[in-house]
Write a structure and sequence with these properties.
Number of strands: 6
Largest sheet: 4 strands, antiparallel
Strand order of the largest sheet: 4-3-5-6
Length: about 70
């Protein structure tokens, strides 16, 4: 099943884009995607965000799960 939110398009495709990327949690949602953890940590600190984690796409659910989380 694919869930589409008005104005956001196909969320499955959006989630797939971030597979294997380091993402930043800004306090309410996961944002951006970086190739390295060091780069994500740099921006997380600069933007005063809350955490960094590696996104892993699950094709069965169509969503990312997050691993190797570092809290700031």
């Amino acid at each position: 099943m694919t869930v589409t939110y008005a104005g956001f398009g196909d969320t499955r495709a959006l989630e797939m884009e971030y597979d294997g990327k380091w993402r930043i949690h800004n306090g309410s949602t996961w944002v951006d995607g970086f190739e390295t953890k060091a780069e994500a940590l740099f921006w997380c600190e600069k933007w005063k965000s809350q955490a960094v984690a590696l996104a892993i796409f699950n094709p069965e659910t169509g969503l990312n799960s997050y691993t190797d989380m570092t809290f700031m």
